[in-house]
Amino acid sequence: MSLAIVHSRAQVGVDAPSVTVEAHLANGLPSMALVGLPETAVKESKDRVRSAILNAGFDFPPRRITLNLAPADLPKDGGRFDLAIALGVLAASGQVPAAGLEQLECLGELALSGAVRPVQGVLPAALAARAAGRTLVVPRANAEEASLASGLSVLAVEHLLQIAAHLSGQTPLLPYQASGLLREVQPYPDLAEVQGQLAAKRALLIAASGGHNLLFTGPPGTGKTLLASRLPGLLPALDEQEALEVAAIQSVASHAPLERWPQRPFRQPHHSASGPALVGGGSRPQPGEITLAHQGVLFLDELPEFDRKVLEVLREPLESGFIVIARARDKVRFPARFQLVAAMNPCPCGYLGDPAGRCRCTPEQIQRYRSKLSGPLLDRIDLHLTVARESTALGAPTTPGQSSASAAAEVAAARQRQMARQGCANAFLDLPGLRQHCVLQVQDQHWLEQACERLNLSLRAAHRLLKVARTLADLEQAADIARSHLAEALQYRPSQGG
C-alpha cells in the first residue's frame, strides 16, 4: 500500500483541532516533501523521522515521499506530529499494518534514536480524542495527564518500536492505568491563621459566596496578601468539567506537570508584568495570567504599581469572562472567568492616616498615586475595604477565628441557593437576571436610588451593589433583599467623584 492515513491533533489556543497525516509513496528520485502549512519545527520533523526510522531498525523507503497535513489552511507547529508522520511512512511502505491506524490518534516528538518525547497540550487533545471515540497514543511522560479524560483509552509509548509492535500484533499495548498522582489535593492556607481583621474576613466570605471582585486598601503589614491567599480555600470545589478546563489551560501553557489539578488556581503576577504576560499574546498566542486564573483567583498586589495600560485590558474580561487575542493570521479566544482580588497602599509611602504620623506624602502625590487606577476599572470591583492595623503584641492572647472549612461550608450553601435559583453566581447575573432575582420593596428602591445619587454611583456600580446585597441575603438564607443587606453592601462601595 503506497498511501497511509494517520490521525493526530494540532493545538490552537486551548482547542485541539483534528489533523490528518497523509503519507504517499511514489516512484521517482528519493525525496520527502512536507505540505499543509507546516511551521519550522514541523518542517524539521523530516530529518527527525528519517533518523528515528533507521535507528529503530526499519528501512527508510528510497522513494518519492509526500506528506500532507490536512486541513491545509490550519497552521501546524511543534514536534507533536513526528510519531504520526513516522507511522504514516512505515504504513505506506508496508512495514507496519495500516489496518489499526483508523482507530488511533497519535501525538509525540521523536528523538533521533526513535524514543518518543513528551509534548505540550496533551489534555485538550485527549478530550477531543474521547469525543471522536478513538484511542490516543501519547508519550509515557504525558500518559498521566491524558488519563484525566475519563473514559478515554490511552496507550503510553516510550519508543517507536513499541507502537509498531502493537500494530503488528506482536506485543499489544495495554491501556494505561492512571496512578492518581495528579489528583492529590493539597490544602490551602487556613483562614483561622489570620489574626483579627474581622471586617476583611467578612468581605472575603461575601466575595467567595457571590464570586465578587475585591480590593483591599491599607498600610504595609496589615495582612492584605495573607487574606487574599485564603480566598481559594473558601471557594466551592470544581466540578469535573471545570477542573478539566483548568487542567487544559495548564497543559497548553507549560511543559511542567499540572499543579493542584482538581483545585482552583491562585495566580499572583508581579507588578512589572507586561500586557501580553497578563492577558496573553505572542506571535503564536499563548494564555496569560488571567487565563491561567480561569475558575480561580487572580491576585494583583500593589495594584497602582502596575502599568495603567496593562490594567485597562482587564476591563473586558472582567465583564465577559474571556479574552480574544487577534493576530494577522488567526484569532484565538481564551477563557478568563476569574475572580479579581487586588491590594494597594493608601498613598505612595503607605502610611496615610497612620496614628504615628509617619506619612509625609503631599495631597498632589496622593492624588497622582490614586489616579493610576481608572474609574471604569474600580467600577468593576464590587467590594472595596480598608484594612486597618491590628495589635502587634505578639504575646497577647487571641481568640481563634473562623476556619476555612467552616467558612467554605457557608459559601457552599450560599452558592447552592444561587445555582438552584438562577444557575450562576450572583456576580455573573445579567440584566434580565438582575431584574428577576434582585427585586426590592418600593421604599427600599427609593432609599437605594437616593443613596446612589449622594455617592455619585454609576448604573454599573448600582447593579453590582444589588448583586452584593443579593449575596448577603443568600448568606442569611433570606428569600428577599432587605434594607440591612443594601446598607451593608453600600459600605463596600466608595463614593465616585464626590
UniProtKB/TrEMBL annotation:
A Pfam entry, by short name: ChlI
Entry's Gene Ontology molecular function annotations: ATP binding; DNA binding
Keywords noted in UniProt: ATP-binding, Nucleotide-binding
Domain of life, source organism: Bacteria
SMART domains attached to this UniProt entry: AAA
NCBIfam families: PRK09862.1 (NF007365), YifB family Mg chelatase-like AAA ATPase (TIGR00368)
Assigned protein family: Belongs to the Mg-chelatase subunits D/I family. ComM subfamily.
PANTHER family: COMPETENCE PROTEIN COMM (PTHR32039:SF7), MAGNESIUM-CHELATASE SUBUNIT CHLI (PTHR32039)
Protein known as: YifB family Mg chelatase-like AAA ATPase
Species of the source: Aquipseudomonas ullengensis
